[in-house]
Every structure is written in structure tokens, then in C-alpha cells.
Write a structure and sequence with these properties.
Structural class: mainly alpha
Helix content: over 70%
Number of helices: 5
Strand content: under 5%
Order of helices and strands: HHHHH
Number of strands: 0
Radius of gyration: 16 Å
């Protein structure tokens, strides 16, 4: 495996790994909601809702990225759909983080906005990447 497929495989494995670590980090947030909430300057109840949403999105990204990596490795015909789904979920995650930083968080919102922007660009890159080559060749 060389070229586009090798790069795409590494990209989607990296996205799946980062999404899995994000799920673990957000799940750990439930063990100490008060300090996680203090980081954002919000109430622990708001942070619990925010962490729940992030866990749901991160789990979806993990599943889609893992499916994308598997479909690239096995040369499946649904690679474009899986990669596009991963990209859409990453863009949604990024939008959620940006909106969360702009409207919910009272402190440290710039780091959350920056992280959301990176996720959004990764999503756009994901949608672009799977359309670069025909995986059946």
C-alpha cells in the first residue's frame, strides 16, 4: 500500500485514536465535574451536559473514522461514504466546540474555539481526502 491509500489510512487511524482519547478524557471529566466546570467558568450541571454531548460526538467520530480506515485498508466501495461521514461529524464537533466557546464558556474559551477550528478543518480535509483517488484502483 502506497501513496494516497497509505496516507489516508494513517490519517483515519490518527483521527480514530484522537477521538477515542477524547472520549476517555471527557468520561474522566465526570469524575470531577467541579474542576472541569471551573476551567470553563460554568456550573457543573452545564459541564455535565456539555461533556455528554462531546462524548456522543466523539464516539460517533471514532466509529466513523475506524470504518473509514477499515474500508481504505480492505478497498471497499463505501470508502467515500465513510470518509464523508467522518468529515461531517468532525465539522459538527468543531461547530459545537466553537459555539460552546462563544456562548457557554465564561473562561478559557479561546482554546476551545481553536480546538473546534482544528476539528472543523480536519473534517473538511477528510471529505476532500476520500475524493482524491478511486479506491477500487
Amino acid at each position: 500500500m502506497r501513496g494516497w491509500r497509505a496516507f489516508a489510512l494513517v490519517f483515519y487511524i490518527a483521527v480514530a485514536t484522537l477521538a477515542f482519547l477524547e472520549v476517555l478524557g471527557d468520561a474522566l471529566g465526570f469524575t470531577d465535574l467541579s474542576s472541569y466546570a471551573a476551567f470553563g467558568g460554568i456550573a457543573p450541571e452545564q459541564e455535565a451536559q456539555r461533556l455528554g454531548s462531546l462524548i456522543l460526538l466523539s464516539t460517533s467520530i471514532f466509529a466513523a473514522a475506524a470504518a473509514s480506515a477499515w474500508s481504505i485498508h480492505k478497498k471497499k466501495t463505501w470508502t467515500i461514504r465513510a470518509g464523508t461521514l467522518t468529515g461531517v461529524l468532525l465539522v459538527l464537533y468543531g461547530m459545537y466546540q466553537i459555539l460552546s466557546g462563544l456562548s457557554i464558556l465564561q473562561s478559557n474559551q479561546f482554546s476551545v474555539i481553536l480546538a473546534g477550528s482544528v476539528y472543523g478543518f480536519a473534517g473538511l480535509f477528510s471529505m476532500w481526502l476520500v475524493r482524491q483517488r478511486d479506491v477500487e484502483k
